[in-house]
Design brief:
By secondary structure, the chain is of the alpha+beta class. The chain is about 35% helix and about 25% strand. The protein has helices at about 5-35, 40-55, 70-75, 130-140; strands at about 55-60, 85, 95-100, 105-115, 120, 140-145, 150-155, 160-165, 170-180. The longest helix is centred in the N-terminal third of the chain and has 33 residues, at about 5-35. The protein is elongated.
Length: about 180
């Protein structure tokens, strides 16, 4: 007869542990969900980062500026086929895609800086790669994995800055882009 209360105690203990586990999971996932930003907030942050970049850089044209195409002209481009622009007297190239999605207008979403007169946050071609990285980190960019040995990628929100360098660790190309996954 004593076995029944013991089984009852074990069952009650099991239910208490199960209830505590469920409470822990609920609190944990509710906390994690509260820390994740909704997509529209992340895009809004990225627009602020784009403004910060444009205000502190000079690369001929602003990132996310309108490409000047009509909607009919823009419909010929997209996906893997961007509209490309160059200023008459400069080597810097501008690539246009739709950001943040295909319903948006065609804007400059990538700039390849090849002109020594231009800069990104004061970083110019010929500067030491370490100095460029320090400046970007100072603006809140984080170093990311990148498959090319002669380049270092930094990201902040939807913004990417890739510093390419030569064998002397001098910057020889800067690519700034917006990418929304």
């Amino acid at each position: 007869m004593k076995k029944k209360p013991r089984l009852k105690n074990i069952a009650i203990l099991f239910l208490i542990i199960l209830a505590l586990w469920g409470l822990y999971c609920f609190i944990h996932f509710a906390y994690v969900a509260s820390k994740e930003k909704p997509e529209d907030e992340m895009i809004e942050d990225s627009y602020a980062y784009i403004d910060e970049l444009n205000e502190n850089s000079d690369f001929g044209m602003e990132l996310n500026a309108d490409c000047g195409l009509t909607e009919e002209e823009a419909s010929q481009y997209g996906g893997d086929y961007p509209y490309t622009m160059q200023l008459d007297h400069k080597e810097t190239e501008y690539y246009c895609f739709r950001y943040p999605d295909q319903s948006a207008p065609m804007t400059i979403t990538q700039i390849q800086v090849l002109d020594p007169e231009y800069h990104v946050f004061g970083i110019k071609l010929g500067d030491p790669i370490e100095a460029g990285g320090d400046i970007l980190c100072g603006y809140g960019y984080e170093e990311k994995d990148y498959p090319i040995d002669t380049a270092i990628k930094y990201a902040k929100g939807d913004l990417n800055v890739i510093l390419y360098h030569d064998e002397n660790n001098r910057i020889n190309r800067i690519v700034v882009s917006i990418s929304h996954d």
